[in-house]
Structure formats: structure tokens, C-alpha cells
Protein: Cellulose synthase-like protein
Organism: Rehmannia glutinosa
Amino acid sequence: MEKTSLPLNDCHNHHSFTNYQNQEIPILPFLLIFISELLFTFIWILHQAYRWKPVTRTVYPERLPQDHEKLPPVDVFICTADPSKEPSLGVMNTVLSAMALDYPPHKIAVYLSDDGGSFVTLNATREAWKFSKWWVLFVETEKKEIKKRYNEFKEALENNSVNASGSVSRDHAPTIEVMNDSDAKDSDKEEMPVLVYVAREKRPSHPHHFKAGALNVLIRVSAVISNAPYILVLDCDHYCNDPTSARQAMCFFSTPKYLQNWLLFSSPRNSIISVSMISMMPGSIIIGLKMSTLQCMCYAALSFDPIYVVPFYGLAIIPQICLLHGIPLYPKVSDPFFVVFAFIFIASQLKHVQEVMFYGDSIWTSLYELRVWMMKSASCNLYATLGAFLDKFGLQEAHFNLTDKVVDDERETRFKKGIYDFQGSPMLIAPICSLYIFNLASFFIGMARIVNTHKANELLVQAFIPLFGAIVNYHVLEAMVVRTDKARISPSVSLLSVAIATFILCFGSLILIF
Ligand SMILES: O=c1ccn([C@@H]2O[C@H](COP(=O)(O)OP(=O)(O)O[C@H]3O[C@H](CO)[C@@H](O)[C@H](O)[C@H]3O)[C@@H](O)[C@H]2O)c(=O)[nH]1
Ligand SMILES: [Mn+2]
């Protein structure tokens, strides 16, 4: 998504300078806006790498060797950490989807890493193994029978999960269990993928490095058991929703020309297939030793994503404060430079809409993406950037909170209806609401000012910024004042946000002293 672009800075420079000279306007707001736009421009340049040489590739899995023995083995790594936040049924569905890949079964080995070292997950894996025989082996089984068995399996997992939250430990010896079935015939064993449960050793005194640490252990364990040349890494909330995805990926790996470009990691084995690549999603990013400049730029664009917080806050606060004090930051509507500003804004929005529609999504998706970008910039990126700084200066160690994957019926219904769920921590919601209230207030007070002082020519751009923010984020206003359901923004968070917004309104003008 393009937020702003290069020429904006040029005309900004020019304009801020003339303004400052003619009207003795404080320089700090100009400087902050200028820095914001430089940062936007920097990220914009990085993002152009995605657009520079777009390539569309088609795969022909039917051209892969018919002889199954010629297909390379694949190890599938799945990570889970806590059955109370990552319910067993979801995790086991991921395991089952990997076991049911349309690939020679004896060439697939599935490894489940359980970072919680929980008996709930171990038992669930055993249940999944039992069920997988119906799912994987007896594909011919009547649908009714499979459904019945799946319901039994689901029930077994639910009963097994009763004590999920107490089952997780940070202090345990390793457990490795290769799922096995003593009654199985040898021929059946051939036809089933290997399924291995792995809980690495964890001690409070040793850093465990989260998912990365878990993957390192799986690399070592799988090297002894199956040692496949290709690894597919899945989170426990991912699925192999297309059974042919492994075959599709092999089309790339069996084409030496692409293999060079698609290599991911240098590890004791050949390569690691990322799930984004295997599903061939547009915009997937592949990391490797031989990264070209464009690939480096794509990687940098991802890494720098959280610094959006700086220019976002810049544009969400400074033009508004200047508007309240009648200080114009942008060209007059009658100024020829105004056309440049308007053009860049409209063009970047249209480009975003065009990209969204090109990938087959509706025009509304571009609005939703804009909202998510704004909410992320206001909240997640703020904490991510703060956390990174605190960690860098040794003030607080960066930590990782597992995302809650528990979805109850109510939540699911809301999700399906497209209703925003604001049940998160007030720390995450308050910054979004505060900015919203501040912008809405700035717009109305600013408009009153424009009407009274007849400064529409000078201040219109600045009044448009908070208006645009308020319209795009109408769902925030709705969640604060219209909605009454459980997932609305609670009155206490709204009140807190009113207080924060008032504070910014009163003390924001401090930036005008310099
Ligand atoms: O100590 C830990 C913590 C997490 N996980 C697993 O790591 C995965 C990702 O965790 P999640 O809480 O789902 O984080 P997300 O933010 O949803 O994950 C995104 O961000 C992660 C990096 O921050 C990437 O690794 C993921 O692939 C990406 O989907 C899950 O399977 C977890 O079970 C572990 O194995 N051990
Ligand atoms: Mn996740």
C-alpha cells in the first residue's frame, strides 16, 4: 500500500520554507512532518521492490515423475505451545491436514513440537494418530462413517482438554514419541505418514528462544528419524488447505533455474519450504543467502514495518494541532502545488484499490486494509517499536505473547458478520480511540476556526486529514457510541481515551513553542 510518495517531500520542503520565512511560524511542526514524510518515502521506496518485476508462475504437478519413488521426502514441522490458548482440535486438524497431503505417505513425516510439554497435547496426538488411519488410509470409507468418527475424535479431545491450562510446564525433561500402532499390519505402516510428538527439554534458567528454538530441535530430531531434504514449517493455526500444495512446491524445487532463487536458509539440509511459498500466495517472501537487491528490499520492507508508527502519529497529531492554531502546513488550495498533493493522495489510494481488485477482492477490502493498517500503526506498531527500543537499551527484555486461538461461537458469528471485536486489552484499544477522538474534535474545532477566520484556502488540506481518518475509521466511533454488544469498545476505555485526547488537545500545542 502506498501511503505517500517522493514528490510530496520536495514540495513540502519548498512550501514549509516559504511559510516559515513569511509568517514566522514555529519550525518544530514542519520538521516533524518532514521527518514523517521522509520515513513514509523510505518505506514507499522499499515497497516498490514488490512491484518492480512482478512474475506470475504456473505449476504443472501432473508433469512430476509418475514414479512415486522419484519424489523427494518432505518433513512437516508443526509448532504448538499451550493447549489452553491453542485448542487441541485446531492443532490436530493441522496435523491431520499435513498427514492427508496428496503425496506418497511414506515420504511424509509430521513432527509436532509441543513447547508446553503438556500431556494434553501428547494424548491429543495419540488420538489424532488413531483417527488419521480413518482419514488417511480409508479414503474410501463412507462420508457418514468418517463424520461419525470425527465427532468421536472431537469429543475425545474435548474430554482430554479439561485440564489444559494446568498442563503446561516451563520446566521439563524432553519427550519424543513416535506414534505407533502395535496392531497395524506392515502394509498399513507403509501407507501411513510418520507422526512424531516432540517436547524439547525446557528449564527456567535457559532461554528457549520460542518458535525458533522449537524448530532447531525439530531439525535435530527429524535428522535422526526421517532426514527429508525438504521441510515444510507450519504454525498450529495454519492448514494445508490444498492437498496438492506439496506437489505444487516440488514443481519449483525440481526446476533448477528457480531453485537458486527460492532457496531459503542455509541449514544442514537443502532447504526449508515456507508455508507462504507452498500455497503460492502473491507477495510471498523468500529469504536466502543469494538475495538480490530487490529481495533485500522486500525483506527490509517487512522488517521496517513497525516504524510506520512514527510517521503515522506524526500525521495523526501535528497537522491537527496546527489546524487548531490556524497554522497552515500545506499549500493553499489556490497554489499550483496543491494539485501535486491532491494527485499523490488520490493516486496512492487508487493504486491500492487497483491492487486489491487485481487479486480478485472487492473494493471494500481496500477500506478494511486501510483500517487495519491504521489500527496496527496506532497500536501494535507503537508497542512493538517501544519494546524493541527498551530491549535494545537493556531496559526490558523483548517478550512474546502467544496469540489466543480459542474461538467460541459468539466470536465466530461476529467474525462471519464482519463485526469488529474490541475485546482486547485496553492498552491496545485506547491509543486507537484516543487518536480517533482527538481527530474528530480537531476537525470540528478546526472547521469552526476556518468558518470564523475565512482561512479555507490555507487550512483545507489540514481539515481534510482528520476528516479522512474519522471517515475511514467510522467503525471505531460505532464501537464506542452505537454498539451495545459484548465486543464493543467498553465505556471505560472510551472515557480513558477522551481523557487522553483532551490531554493532547491541551498540551499538544507545546510543539508550537519551538
Ligand atoms: O514459545 C513458543 C511460542 C510460540 N510457538 C509457536 O509459534 C507459532 C506462532 O505463534 P502465534 O502466537 O500464533 O504468533 P503469530 O503472531 O500469530 O505468528 C506470526 O508471527 C510469528 C513471529 O512473530 C511467526 O513465527 C508466525 O509464523 C506468524 O504466523 C505458533 O504455532 C506457536 O505455537 C512456539 O512453538 N513456542
Ligand atoms: Mn498465529
